[in-house]
Amino acid sequence: MGTVTAAISISAAAAVVSRPVDRRRPRGPGAFRCSSSAAGERQALFSRIAPVYDHLNDVLSLGQHRTWKRICVSWSRAKKGDRVLDLCCGSGDLAFLLSQKVGLDGEVMAVDFSRQQLQTAADRQEQRWKMCYKNIKWIEGNALDLPFPDCYFDAVTIGYGLRNVVDKPRAMQEVFRVLKPGSRASILDFNKSSSLFTSSLQSWAIDNVVVPLASGYGLTEEYKYLKSSISQYLTGEELEKLAKEAGFSVAKHYELGGGLMGNLVATR
C-alpha cells in the first residue's frame, strides 16, 4: 500500500485499525480529535445502533435505501481496477457495492470511527462472502484526519455520514485532498429540503414512523437524534458551495426519493 500501513486482517472477533505512515502534510493547529465530546457522543450513538442498523434501514425505507446506495456508487464512476474510499462506511453497504465495481484488481478502503459498526461490517463480509470482497480493508479512522496520502483514490463515497461529522468543511477538504484530479466524490444523505411540504413530510415520518419503530428496539433517543441532525445539515445549494470552497471544480446536488434524500456529486 505504499505510504499507508497495510491493514490488519479482520476476523469476526476484531475490527481493523490502520495507521498512517506518511501523510504528506502536517497537521494544522487545533486539528480535530475523536476525543471531543460531540464526536464521542456520536461515536457512542452509532455503536449502540450497530446491531439493528441494517434491519431498521430496510424497514424504514421499505428497502429503497438499497436503490439510493446503488445510485450513489454509480455516480462515483468507480470502475475495474480502481482504488476507492468509502468514508463513514458504517455496516458496509457502499463498500460491498464498490467492491463489485472495482473487482479483484481494485482496492476498497472502508473507514469509520465506530469499531462496533466495523465489526458488524466484517461479520456481514463473512456471511455474504464473494471473492471480490477480498479487496475490502476495514479501517478505524477519523474523517477529519484521514490516514492516506494526497491524490490516492480514484473515487470516494459517503453514505449518511457527512451529516454526522462535526466539522463538515474540514471533512470535505480531506475528501478533496485524497482524491486524484478529475475523480469524483459521491455523497448520499437525507435531503434538507427547501420545500415546506417535503420538510414537513420528513418531520412527520420521523416522529410518527421512525421513532416509534426504533423504540421497539430500545433506541428511542438514538433515533430522535435523526430529526435534529437533518435540521442542522446543509441544503443542496449549501453542499454545492461547501464542495467548491474545498476546491472541487464541479459540484451538483440531486434530490432522490421524492426529495427526502439527496446526493452530492463533486469532481476534483
Automatic annotation (TrEMBL):
Known EC number: 2.1.1.329
Gene name in the database record: MENG
The record, for Gene3D superfamilies, names: Vaccinia Virus protein VP39
Cellular-component GO terms for this entry: chloroplast
- Annotated localization: Plastid, Chloroplast
* Keywords, ordered alphabetically: Chloroplast, Methyltransferase, Plastid, S-adenosyl-L-methionine, Transferase
Q: Describe its function.
A: Involved in the biosynthesis of phylloquinone (vitamin K1). Methyltransferase required for the conversion of 2-phytyl-1,4-beta-naphthoquinol to phylloquinol.
Instruction: Report the family membership.
Output: Belongs to the class I-like SAM-binding methyltransferase superfamily. MenG/UbiE family.
Q: What Pfam families does the record tag this protein with?
A: Ubie_methyltran
Q: What is this protein called?
A: 2-phytyl-1,4-beta-naphthoquinone methyltransferase, chloroplastic
Give the residues annotated as coiled coil: none
- List the GO biological process terms: methylation; phylloquinone biosynthetic process
Task: Indicate where this protein is primarily found.
Answer: plastid
Native species: Urochloa decumbens
SUPFAM superfamilies assigned: S-adenosyl-L-methionine-dependent methyltransferases (SSF53335)
Q: Which domain of life is it from?
A: Eukaryota
In alphabetical order, the GO MF annotations are:
2-phytyl-1,4-naphthoquinone methyltransferase activity
Q: Which reaction does it catalyse?
A: demethylphylloquinol + S-adenosyl-L-methionine = phylloquinol + S-adenosyl-L-homocysteine + H(+)
